[in-house]
Every structure is written in C-alpha cells, then in structure tokens.
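Hey all, sorry for the wall of text incoming. These are the two entities for the joint prediction.
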Amino acid sequence: MWQNRIVKRIYTNKTSLAGFILVVFFLLVALFAPWLAPVHNPHNPYQMPQKSYAIAPQSPSAQNWFGTTEQQYDLYYGVVWGARLAFVVGVTVTFFAFLIGLLVGAVAAYFGGKVDEVLMRLTDVVFAVPSLVLAMVIAAMLGPDIKNMMIALTAVAWPSYARLIRGDILSVKRRDYVTAARTLGARGPRILLRHILPNSIYPAVVVASLDIGYIVLTAASLSFLGLGAQPGTADWGQLIAMARNWVLGTAQNPFAYWYTVAIPGGAIFLFVLGWNLLGDAFRDILDPRQV
Amino acid sequence: MSACVEIKNLYKTYHRRKWLFGAGEAVEVLKDVTLSLAENRVLGLVGESGCGKSTLCKVLLGIEKPTSGTVVVQGQEVAASTPAQLKKMRRVMQVIYQDPYGSLDPRMTVRQLLSEPLDIHKLYLDKHERNKFLEELVQAVGLSPEHLNRYPHEFSGGQRQRISIARALALDPHILVADEPVSALDVSVQAQILNLLRDIKRTRKLSVLFVTHDFAVARFLCDDIAVMYQGRIMEKAPAEQLLARPMHPYTQTLLSAVPEVGKALTSEPEEKASGPSTGTGCPFAPRCSKAKEVCRQQIPTLVETAPGHWCACACLTQGETNDLKS
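and here's what came out:
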C-alpha cells in the first residue's frame, strides 16, 4: 500500500532520508526545547536569557555552548527555542495559507464564470507584487510582532495554493468518474468532497511541505529587517539581525565572531534544506507514475 | 411496443468562446435527432468518432442541456425536470462509460464505489442487508465478494468494466445507456462483457441504448440500429433488416468496411469531392459515390422506405433504390 511506499522511498533514497532525518531532528529539538534549554522567563519562554549587557559576543564556552551574541544573549537557547518558533511559524502560516487557498480555489473552480474571474483576478493582484515586499508592507502596517508577521506571511502565501487547487479541480471536474457520480444522482457538496477534492488536493500538499521551509526563510528575512520578532526573542532571523555588526571580526582575525552568524544561519539552512528534500520525496511518492 | 425514451427534433450547439473579442464559433453537434428506445429492446447507435454519439448520451442523461428539442424518459422531460425529479430519474436510467480507467474514482474501493449510489438514494441502509446486496451484486457481474475491498487499479480493463456495470445496476434501473462500453477492451474481453450485458439485459428486462462504432458488436447485441453521421440520423431500422439491406450509402460504406472472414476488404469509394460538406446539402454528399446535384443543395429528411425502416437519402425520395449491387 501507499503508506509502505513512503517508508520504502524514504529509506532507499539517500536525499529523502537526509531530509527526513533533518526534519525529525528539528522536530525533536522543538518538542524537547524545555528540557534541552530550561525556560528562563516563565511568562515568555521565547525570551532569551541575557547574561550581561556587554556588547561584544563571547565565544563558545562550557556555560554557553554556542557562545553569546551581541548583548550576551545565549545562542544555544536562541537556536533551540528558535527551532520551536520556526515550527510554530512555518506550520501555522502554511496551514492557514493552505486553508484559504483551498477555499478560494475550490469556490472559483466549482462555480466558475464571474466568481472565478473575480477570485482569480484578486489572486493575480497579490501575485503581481513581489511577495517579500508585500509581506514587509503588511507587517509594517500591522506593527512589528510575531503574530502580525504570521498574518503578513499568510496573506502573501495563499494565492499560490488557490491557483494550484483551482487548476487541479478544473481538470478533475472533467473526469468520467465525476460525471458518473452525477449520473448516480450525487449533488454538488458530495461530488466536491468525495470525488473532486481527494483527487486534486495532493499537489497542494506537496507544495505545502516545500513551503514550510520557505515560509521560515521569509519569516527570518522579516525578523532580520526588524518587522517580525523583537530583540531578545529566540528567533533565527532575529539572531542573524543581532549578528549584523559582527560579520567581520577584528583586523587580526576577520572570523573572530563567526559563531554569531554561522550558528543561526546554519540552523535556517539545514531546516529549509530538510523540508525541501522531504517535499521532493513527497512529490515523487504522490506521483502516480512512480507506481 | 411502447417507447421508454423518446427523443424528438433534438439539436445541440456548442459555442466556442473566442478570447476576449469577437463572436464565438458555433458548432452544431446534434442536428434534428429523432429516436425512440423501445421497451425491453436494445437500440444500437452506430457512427464514427466525433459524430455526436456521446453528446447524445449526455443530453439524454441530463448532463448537457439540449439547444432545442425534447428528451422524454418514461413520460418525464429531462431538460424540464427539477433536481428532485432528476434524482428520481437516475434510479430509472443508468449509464456505463467507455473508459474503464477514467470512470471509477481511483481513491475508492469497489465497496465504496458500489455503495455510493445506495448512499445517495438511501437504499439498503442496514449494514447486514447492504453487505448481502453488494455481494450478490458483484457476483451478478462475474466478480467475487473478496474483490469488494480492492481498489480499481488492482483490476484489468474488463474487470473494471464489470465494476462499472455493477455500479449501474445497483439502483436496479429499467434503462441502461452504454456509451461504447467495450471499445476500450481487448477483443477477447469484449466478448465476455458483451455476453454479460446480453445476460443482464435478459434477466433484468432492461431497455438499452448501446452506443458503438463497431457493426460487429451491434450485430451481436442490438434489436434496432440507428446510424449517425455528423450529428444526424441517416438510417434507422430493426437490426436484421438494416444489416441485410442497408439503404443509405453511408451505412453501405460502413458495412463494407467491417472485416469478415473469407471476404476481401474493399476500400471506401474515392471521394468525389474532398473537404467538409458545404453545410447546405446532405452531410455525406462529399464522400458519397451516388451524390447528385440535389444532394448538395437539400438536406434529405428521414423517410420510411419500408415498414420500420427509415432512411435519409435524396436518392430514395426520388423513387430510386440504393441496391448494394448497383
């Protein structure tokens, strides 16, 4: 069965396996964050502990495994809780973007005509503006805050789902088994829920799995620009923003503060890479030609 | 012989929309089709690809609206029915599709596929009765109960077509529309499915509209045959009569193209004038070896040339006979 196919595909393909391991690793880190890095501020666990107010970062040591970044925020704590935040942001934004896209795409494809025209032109408007720029504008309007950043990301992410789902529904709608259901006496909702959606939703699921990484990357960009997480939040983009002044070290040692950039940057890189590889695996598994 | 399906002066025109500007192009798919399906008989609708056979089925099933004309199924006009009336009609008239791979939802098991019509019409709601009914149903089409839990992709084309037939029979209809049910199958499997259809027609007293492009298949199964060309009925008659004494030149051409053992194949007479018909005359005139001036100017009407034998050919209305030998 197809469940076995997923397992087989992931085990036999090295890149799929790498993606799977990376995502599972980050998932475990996110789940066990309170044990890996005990909460410092019970009111806001995403608040990074600040060791002192000294400006210059400190290299990794026994106390601070990954060192500290500007203003002595603990990088280890930031990376661990950042993984949790990355999952929250990535999954929530993708979920809501998927949901809105599904709704808009399904309504447009099912009713067609003027409804389709209006909804699709609306998605075109969102598409017409570069998504990062649009997200920046929305986030700036709503004010810098993680929740507002997620709203901004959702607002720019849904149109691609709407388009994809609409196209797939339009093609499935014409298949014989949909006509067959109608000749059996099935009406709209039943045809849509039992026949059309189950056969048209999978490409969007694949895109969603690829999107989680991309959303986290965009979220990091917004945080870096000061439009997302606030200073002191355990957010990978925020950590990189705080490393901005330390990319180049001293004249004698240009890489003196390498850990301030490389550690959160590496976390983002591996997280996005993991989801991309896993998404590729999903795409191959759900492709019927692979059978 | 009462008719359970009456099709009268049916026209269906599709409008191809042009992009943004300009009037769309109109394509007449069905032109003045008048047909009736008699109770407990098999009517074969024969014609080449693209002649409008499948469109006729869609209009008959109420999936497409006719441009003009009427389709009456057991006293009820299809196009004028309310959704509730249409739903009732589904129990009377069911359909088997051509493509055994496309007509079954790939994500549903056979049990789910066959349960769907019962769920929709709220039949056999008791779990035990439902199971018993489904088991009998699959056995009636030559499958076994253990097949109920499998998915369509686990079956061959012939078996899938059996599932399609079972689904159509689940509602115990009186009328069956079969839209080329065997044309996608191997010849050896075709025979099995045709035998099954013939048995089911007999035991369940079905009236069948059987669409095909194959005279050999029509000969085997049909009581009456109607020949269609470019959306028009060219000739209709009881099967034996039509096959023995075809009157329309088009029917004669089609029949001479059916390969038979021990008979040399004759090629179609050379086209007298190539290209599509001008739209004014008989649609077959450009390909017809007997076409005259009148054929290019006037559309011939269906005329009863012998009892029960109708033919639309200008040559016949002028009192001549189209003998095969001439």
